[in-house]
Amino acid sequence: MADLTERNVLLPENLEMQRKPFPSYDVVYFLTPTETSVSNLVRDWATPADIKYNDAYVFFTTAVAPELMGMIGACTNLVQPAGPQRLKCLVELHLEFLVPESKVFHLALPEALRLYSNPVDPQRPPPILVELARRLASVCVTLGDWPLIRYSPNLGQNPTHMARVLAEMTQYELDMIMRRPPPDYPRAQREGAQPTTLLILDRSVDPITPLVHDFASKPMAYDLLGDQINGNVFKYSYENKNRQKVESTAILDDTDALWREYSYTFFAHAMELVSKRQSDFAAAHPDGLKAGNLAENPLLTQQYAQLRTHVTLTNMLLEAAKEKNLLKVGNCEQDMASGTTAEGSTTLNLNNKMKEIIADSKSSQMDLQRLILLYLMTKKDMKEADKRDIIARARIPADVEQCVFNKLRFIGGSGRHFPLARTSMRARGVEEPLVLMRYVPYLKHIIEKHFENDRSVMGDYPFVRDPGPGYNPGAGANRLVAPIPGATSLRSDATREPGWGDRGRPASSMQPQPPAQRGGARLVVFVLGGVAYSELRVVHELSSSYDIIVGGSSLVTPNNFVELMRLL
Fold first, then answer.
1. What is the pLDDT of residues 436-454, one digit of tens each?
2. For 463, which DSSP code?
3. Strand, coil or helix: what is 453?
């Protein structure tokens, strides 16, 4: 609200509610292009007596259908046949997606995973596939990019190559938009620059990552504290100085500098960081804390509340990890996913480890389901009798076995081996990995090979249209970006460039920085079937070197992914 009032907006109101007229004020309508919203707009101008405002500025989230445009044109009090026009502008914004953080988007369509279970006729695609293509095109328009589109191979057992169909439909949507392009679209690039690439990935390329416990703070929070985190709103309770329980709410987003700093850091390191910040705060303001007079200083009150939020959050992560025995579970998952033990041995002894975890009453039914799904995906040539034995030991309900375990083939996870997805950091010759974070999501491998223009890998990812002989995505950036200090990778500080999430950030945190050129042209990655928080972490770590934006049909947590598999 404060952002609006600073820009001289008197009052935000719901179009569907009864509203008081303000005939001397102009009005800005921000609408979805539906019959209901257009009818409500027209109703405000139906007769001279109905007119509530002076002039109108109308903005739609996406393209408006001809019949809806006709309804607006027929409203003569708004679009006057002669004389001054009340309708000062009508703009299609192409904003059919959500942006939870800088460099990340999703289309809020979790049901898209259902596409994998049934063949699709490309000539008569289902409505959800049409919607996916339209929304994905709107992302490109908002970015100002006219990308080359490529897609992943078909690795599941659905006869329809879903990534290819979506890629072709997205190209068609962009072609239609170009027939009447918005202003300044596509945005100009440097002369001779490499074009942006839109890479559409099928979830079957890597069905492992959405199931693995990630021990970085943000992925871990959304995995373990799902009942207390809704979107970016964290609800928690604490005891005040009178030992009374107080309910509190905090926003976890890019405007919170401390959250921005540790959200993709190993949770134990994050606890150390937050604890140190709390100690530093207490040392800097001893009198205020002793006297209990923080309320007299609003800035200190805000800083103290923010620290309390993050101390509570990191402590909750530790308690949840202990309660669920996640050190043992996580280590077993890492052995499966990375293909090696923490000591580097390829002798995994998974059967005994699985039996120990199943016998431990601390493991929840959902954690067992995730672990067994990983086991079935990564165990090569597993016998049916062994599969039945492990499912029986874990007391997996029959409906879960039918709805989830028997449908792995649709996302490429039945009896398939993942040699590339299971390449550990040790094998790639980088620094010694954390024991609980040895596994590297396959998305990192794809992104690196894309910018290296490695045809031995990326040759399996066709283009919708021929990019030409000069295509080399790693050759040079197609734009300059200004890095912002404060972002932290898993193990080291890294600069972060401003993006959608930087809007509304206080000016003090947006100090001008010298332009920095990222390696290669922009890459937009889209995961059909949902993008995992572990994959957001990978992109966060690579964003100091490359200009990457990542998105999916939805954002998925591991538990959410298992539930979505029931739709198959």
1. 999 999 999 999 999 999 9
2. B
3. coil
